Amino acid sequence: GFKWGTWRDTHVRIEGKGVQGLQSIFLIDWFFVSQTLITSRKYFPELPVYGSISMQTVNSGPFREEREISHGILQAIYDAQKSIFIQTPYFIPPESMIEALQAAAIRGLDVRLIISKKSDVPLVQMASRSFVKEMLESGVKVYMYEKGFLHSKLMVFDDSLTLIGSVNFDSRSFEHNFEVEAFIYDHDVAEKAMDIIVEDQRFSQVVSLREWMRRPMRLRFIESLMRLFAPLL
Question: Hey, what domains does the chain have and what are their CATH numbers?
Answer without folding.
Answer: 13-51 (no CATH), 52-232 (3.30.870.10)
